[in-house]
Amino acid sequence: MGIHISTKIKLAANQGERKSVQVGDIMIGGEKIVVIAGPCSVESREQIMEIARRVKEAGATMLRGGAFKSRTLPYSFQGLGVEGLKMLAEARDETGLPIVTEVVSPETVRIVEEYADIIQVGARSMQNFPLLKRIGKARKPVLLKRGFTSTIEEWLSSAEYILAGGNNDVILCERGIRTFQSLTRFSLELTVVPIIKEVSSLPILVDPSHGTGVRSLVSPMAKAAVAAGADGLLIEVHPKPEEAQSDGDQSLRLEEFEELMKSLKPLAHAIGRSI
Ligand code: PEP
Ligand code: MN
Question: Which residues does 201 contact at the CB level (< 8 Å), separation at least 6?
Fold first, then answer.
């Protein structure tokens, strides 16, 4: 039987072989599992530099950090904007880690793509069609997060917008959906990993930080994601989560991230991959 998606989805559908996205010498969707780690938000130069050095030492492949944030409330920290992008670029210069950062509006795509190695479309923006159209014209790869109330076909339709616009480098990222379950912030739908491999050719990452919202659940679900065949992970890390401007409850401490990286190695090898 298998799983079938609408035939109207073309470019984001399975093309017969898996696609990979190249960022410098890093390949997303290849044999090596990529780990994108960093704070939810860039908060200061010191904060991002410390995190960048430590996650690099622990074996992360890329650095994440929000400079333009999409927050549920207008009173919450909205990010450092262009200053945050400059701090990320400095962290990249020192560590060599490529940077992944979010874009929230069509008007800021130009500036974000100037700094970012991968531009992130957040869950809340997944169906911002003017943004998706503009990103289709961007020259950088895109990390497309799943909207937390979106079906897999809606998610792939959003990927289709970017691909149809001429940007061939789309990476999907599952980050949890809303369910009736209320003990965690979201429910991480790991089933999408094998589903995406069946119905699409795009690389698929998993974000167990937003997917659970609870620090103690991040490492177990990161391991489960690797076992399920994810091409990579997105992990929020903070030296002092209790002082974080956003998402402290779900951020791993630096030592916890180091532990996680160690424990992922044998797991990756067991399924014929490396990390
Ligand atoms: C984030 O990555 O910090 C973020 C805002 O994620 P999401 O869009 O998945 O909520
Ligand atoms: Mn976050």
Answer: 13, 14, 15, 16, 17, 18, 19
Say how many Å lie between the CA of residue 60 and the centre of ligand 2: 18
Evaluate whether 60 touches 261 at the Cβ level (below 8 Å): yes
Q: How far is the CA of 2 from the centre of ligand 1 (A)?
A: 31
Nearest bound ligand to the CA of residue 173 = 1
The CB of 123 under 6 Å from ligand 1? The reply is: yes
CA-proximal residue: ligand 1, atom 3 (nearest): 40
Q: Which residues contact 147 (CB under 8 A, 6 or more apart)?
A: 123, 124, 126, 127, 154, 155, 158
Q: How confident is the model at residue 260 (pLDDT cuts 50, 70, 90)?
A: very high
CA distances to 24, 31, 203 from 223, in Å = 26, 16, 18
- Please, what is the average pLDDT of the chain? 98
Domain 30-270: CATH superfamily is Aldolase class I (3.20.20.70)
Which tens digits make up the pLDDT trace of 83-117? Answer: 999 999 999 999 999 999 999 999 999 999 999 99
- pLDDT per residue over 213-234, tens digit each? 999 999 999 999 999 999 999 9
CA of 5 to the centre of ligand 2 (A): 30
